Structure formats: structure tokens, C-alpha cells
Amino acid sequence: MGWAMTVPSRLRSPNPHLGAYYGIVTSALASLVIILAMFEQLGWGRAALAQSMILVPLGLYLFIAFGARTYLPEDFFVSGRRVPSVYNGFVLAAITIGGVGFLGYTGTAFFLGFDALAIGLGWAVGMLAAGILFVPYLRKTGAYTLPSFLGHRFRSRLLRAAASAMQLPPTALLLAVEIKIAALIAALFLPVSFAVAVIAVAAFIAAVAILGGMRSVTWAGSAEFLVGAIGLVVVVTVVSILLTSLPAPQLVYGGMFADLHKAEVTAGAVPLQPDAFAMALPGPGLQPALKPFLQPFGILGPTDFLLLFLSLALGTAALPSLLARSGVTAHVEAQRHSTGWALLFVAAFAMTVPAMATFVKLIIFREIALTPVSSLPAWLTGLSDMGLLQIADANGDGAIGAAELWIKRDFVLFALPQVAGLPYVLTMLMATSALAIALAASASHLFTLSASLAEDLYRTFAGRHALPRLVAVWAAIAAAAIAAAVFLVIAEIDPLQAALTAFGFAAATFFPSLLLAIWWRRASKWGVLAAMATGFLVMTAYAIFGGMIEIFGAPLSAPLASLAGALLAFITGIAVSYFTHAPSRAEAEYREAMRNPEGESIYDRAQMRAAAAASAAAAATSEQQPAAEPSSTESST
Amino acid sequence: MAPEIPDDGDPVHRHQIQTLILAVGILLVTLVAAILPVAALAWFNQFGFLQFPLAFYLLAQGFLFFIVVIAFWFIRVQERIDLARAESEEWVGR
User: Fold this and answer.
1) Which residue blocks in A324-400 are alpha helix, DSSP H?
2) Which portions of chain A are predicted below pLDDT 50?
3) What ipTM score was computed for the predicted complex, to two decimals?
4) Is A125–B30 a contact, with Cβ atoms under 8 angstroms apart?
């Protein structure tokens, strides 16, 4: 265990040079952008700019991950429990938003306008709920994974293994989604096919996770979050200055609603009527944006809006990849601060997305809608060539209306710098930002999944013939990365729908069971297991039969299934807990220790006791040996 | 065996009750604050703020500002509750 086990986590100080290191990362990114902007003016081609802008930051992340390599279990699984709150907040925010949020939420806001706000609200409330309900208690237990927390809480290997198996679908789905987003970006801007990009991304995140586990995922992820945030802020602020002369996009885009409404009306966008429970979110392919931006409940009705919001809130609060990071800070208060910082970053992103969607929609509709086909803007050719946008004068009136303008949801963000007439290097900055967030999220999902498979399933049941601890996790990381890559090459998934299903799995499976395990004194092992199984089965039934089940004439949606599953799981957990044995004294004592915010984590205390007992036994053995030696000598003589 | 239920004067029990009330209170207020603009959208949209329709502003920004502030307020209050427990336990220990 080394020094990490001997020094209480509360007394461990973080690296004092962290600020300098990440200052260097930020300066390196700024320098790269400035140099490439100059080269663009000097005539560098788009391909060279794209390759430099994507590959140089990738090298930087890999360098950081290499610098954070470790063989110490406590560093590998919980980053030595000395990650400062802000840096943990960086990675938590990157996991919550992810590449799918970065691109998918912006695209959804472009198509749905007001109705898309449910997504940002869900993430933010989920982060708040996690910080209040779960995170401080998981930090106090010090468990390395979410299933191991449940296993220790109820003294049950069965519960631990079941939780590990049930966290597989949400984590694996999110892993696949984030790899797909990263691969789509790479295939769009680099001269590689989608399949090659998927393999390269999977290999990259596997390398990051294998080098230092949670430690390298944390430090590379912090750099990736910074790159993502800086890229987004720079581009959207520049566009805001161009459009409004003010560098505060979140505050000024309200002033554009009148112009946007006029452009939408001119283009023929008319108010729509939602189908109840239809949850008609935009798909990943080319499609027209027919709903006026400000119209409330035009595609998602009020019920669908609230269902989406609540499902994402519960799913975010109980997301295994987020909760797995509950042990990386020095103490309980630091962990609470982490979720506070993460909430701040997520909220800032959620506030910025509608501003970006407004900017893109205003420029596109103002410059294309009802413009004669013969005099369309020059940037249209670039976007058409990249396959992001398509127009067709279907009615032959010589102009383009809203129904004749087709855009891809996940690439709306990349259209912003191009339609605003910014240098190509800023389009690449946006692409690098989205790629960075997708890589940070996918590496975290990969590590969470693999650590749980190795620790909670394999090593729990393999017995004394198990592989060494880190070797088992390395093998699990490699296997999970290969499986995700093969799945993505074979299967076609919509990242946004898959992410909603994953959040739904987390909401139905883990939210009720964690609520009972942490907050209810009477919760029993069987009650929590029944709650998890009920939620999981409801979501599995949705995943298999969802298209065949209809609610008020609309197919069952993931948010509705997840909330129904969470409610059923909660009721089942309470009922089964009442009909089974009351918790044992050991379980009650563990719960009381978990609720006490003071002192060292329960896991670390147990490790220290075990280490002390081992050294005492070793000392006793060495004391007995000199006494035994003369007798052996005597017997030999 | 069922766990023992501590009495009301016990600092542990007081800490847990205060923590529970704070958690439930904040989550309820947050939920109401999120649902209110959705439920009374037409009424809110009679008003404007920073050139936004008010319901849109509340859901796009106002509510997010609110929960960030309430999250950091929660951290502060919870730390005080935790500190009170630690001091009480130390006092009882002496």
C-alpha cells in the first residue's frame, strides 16, 4: 500500500504545482490556436489545420496520463484521495455533459428551442440531488466502486455482484455513445473512416485508463475539461461580440428573439402541436427545423417536458460513473464542494447552450430562408460538403423555406463558427473542445465499468487463484474497450436516445436502491436487491419491447419507463425490506459510521487495521524465531 | 437484530434529523421552483426580463442560478451541522 495507507487522507495535501501545470495546458492551447490562426492566414490548408488542432491536444492528454501512471492500488482506484475539489468538479461536469450533451443538447436546442430546456434542468437538479443524497455518504465509506459500497453496506457478495452486473448496461451504453461521438468528430475532420476512428478512440481511452486508472483519468480529464470549456467559451463569445457587440452571450441572446421570430415566420416555421407522451426528440440524421424556437411545448408537451427533466435528474444523481468519483477527494466536505463546483460548471454550460442555438438558428434562417437559390451564402457549400447541412428547393419556388433546409442534430455546433464567418481554426477549436469532453467522459465510463467488473465480479468470486488486482483491471479495461469498439462498428445507435436510455437505467436501478440503502434505517439486503432488480427489469423490458408498448397511442419512451421503474423499485424495496429480516447490528453500525462525517473513511480504517494486525503478527513471528533457534540448535546437537 | 433508536438529546440523532430536514427541504424547494414555471407558463410569460419571456428566462437561466446558489448554501449549512455534532461528541467524550 505504501505511504498512502499510512497517512490519513484528510492530511494529504494535493500537488502544490497543479495550478501551474494546468496554466501551462491552457497556455499551450492558446498558443496552438494563435499559431494555427496565423498559419491559416499564411495559406495552410484545412486538412493540415484540422490534423494539428486535433492531434496536438491528444498528445498532450496522453503525456499527462503517462505522467500520472501508477501501480499503487489506492492511486489507481481513487487517485490517492487527494484530488482538489475544483479538479474533481471539472471531471464530474465532463462526465455529466459528455460529448453527447456537448453536441446532442445543442442540436436538440436548435430543433426544439424552449422544449429542450428540460435536458439542462435535469442534469443540474441531478447533480444537486447527488451532492445532497448520496455523494458525502459514499465518500465516508471510501468504497472504490458503487457495487462495492452496496456489498459492504449489507455485508453481501451477492448484492455486490448483482449491482456490478446491473451497472453494466448504463455504463456500457454511455461508453459506446461517447466513443461514437468522439469517432464521428475524428472521422469528420481527419482523413480516417468511422471504423478506424472508433478503434483509435477506444485504444486512446484504454491507454489513458490503463496507465494510471482513476489517477490518469482524473488528470487527463481535467485537462480535457479545460480545453472543452475554453474552446466553447472563446467561440461563443466571439460570435456574441460579432452579433451584439457584447461579450456575454448568455445575457444578450434574448434581444435576438424578435429577429429570430421574424426569420422563422418568413421561412414558414409555424407553431406545432405535440402528441402526448410521444417524446419526439430529433434524430441523428438530416432533418428540418420546423418548430419556432420560443414556442413552449410545441414538440414535447408539459408532461413530456417534466418526464424528461425528472428522468435525467434521477439518472444523473445515481449515475455509476459519477458516484465512482466519490472517493477521490481528501474528506467529506471536499467531496460536497466537488459536486458544488460540478453543478456550477454544468449550469454554466446549460445556460450557454440556448444562446448558441439561437445564434446558429438566427444566422442560418436570416441568410438562407427565402433567399433566391442563385444567391445563397458561401459558407453553405462548406457545410454541404461536410454533410452537415442540405438544401433542396422542393416546391420549385426558387427560394429555400424552413422545410427545405435539412441539418444534422449532432453537428449544429460546428456550423456556428462557419456561419458566423469566423476563421476555420475556430471551427477546429470547437471540434477539439467537443472531442476533449467526449474523451474525458468515455475514459471515465470505461474505467468505472472495468474497475467494477474486475473488483466486484471477477475478484469477488475468483478466490485465491484470481489474477493480481491491477492486472485484472487492465484486462477488463482492454476487454471493455475492444467490446465497445466492435459493438460500434457493427451496430447503429442514436447517441442521444442511447444516452437517455442509459440515464433511465441509472434512474430506475440505482436511485431507489441508494436512497433506501443510505437514508432508511430499516432497509435490508433483500429489499435493496429487490429494488435494484425491479428497476432493472422494467428498463430491460423497455429496451427489448419499448417499441411495441403504447401509452395513449405513442410508443413507450425511456423517461417514462425509467420513472415508472424507479417508482416500482422504491415500493418493492420498502415492501421486501419489511417482509425480510431487520438489518443486523453490523449493518446498522456500518450505516451509523457512514452517516458520521468526521474521521477517516470506513474502508481506509479497515485497511489500516488490517495492516496493523499484519505488522503485529510479523513482529510476533520475528520475536519467536530467536527463541526457537537455540532449541533447534540443541536438538541438532 | 434491530438497531437501537437514539434519544432526542443525542447529538447523533439531532445531526441526522437536521441533515434529513435540510435535504428534504432543499430538494422540495428545488422541485417546486422547477415545476412552477412549467405549470404557470402563460402567467409568467406575461412578464419579461432582460428581453426574455420570463418563463423561458427562469428555465434557461434563473433556475440554474438559483440551484447553484442553493447548493453552496447547503454545503455551508451542512458543514455547520456537522461541526455542531463533532463539538457535541467531543464534549460528551470529555
Assistant:
1) 332-368, 379-385
2) 1-4, 630-637
3) 0.90
4) yes
Are A576 and A527 contacting, i.e. CB atoms less than 8 angstroms apart?
yes
A343/B75 Cβ within 8 A: no
Residue type, A214: M
Chain B contact for A586 (CB, 8 A cutoff) = no
Angstrom distances, CA of residue A359 to CA of A353, A433, A622: 10, 19, 75
Question: What confidence category does residue B2 fall into, taking pLDDT thresholds of 50, 70 and 90?
Answer: very low
Do the strands A550-551 and A554-555 form a parallel or antiparallel pair, or are they unpaired?
antiparallel
- What range does the domain containing A473 cover? 56-501
**Is A628 inside any structural domain?**
no
End-to-end CA, chain A: 43
**φ, ψ (nearest 5 deg) of residue A37:** -65, -40
Q: Which residues of A touch B72 (CB under 8 A)?
A: 340
**Beta carbons of A429 and A226 less than 8 angstroms apart:** no
* Residue A452: CATH number of its domain: 1.20.1730.10
| Cβ-defined contact of B26 to A254 (cutoff 8 Å) | no
Query: What was the pLDDT predicted at A636?
Result: 37
A131 has a chain B CB within 8 A of its CB: yes
**By the CB < 8 Å criterion, does A116 face chain B?**
no
- Hey, of B68, B82, B83, B92, which one would you mutate to test binding to chain A, going by the most A CBs within 10 A of its CB? B68
> How far apart (Å, rounded) are the C-alpha atoms in residues A94 and A221?
8
User: Is residue A370 situated within a structural domain?
Assistant: yes
The amino acid that residue A543 corresponds to is A
Backbone angles phi, psi at A398, to 5 degrees: 80, 5
Any idea which residue has 488486482 for its cell? A469
Q: Does A595 touch chain B (CB under 8 A)?
A: yes
**How many independent structural domains does chain A possess?**
1
Q: Tell me if A347 is assigned to some domain.
A: yes
> Which set of grid coordinates corresponds to residue A220?
487527463
Across the interface, whether the CB atoms of A598 and B51 are under 8 A apart is answered no
CA separation for the pair A419, A18 (Å, rounded) = 38
Q: Does B88 touch chain A (CB under 8 A)?
A: no
Q: Is A588 within the bounds of a domain?
A: no
For residue B35, pLDDT beyond 70: yes
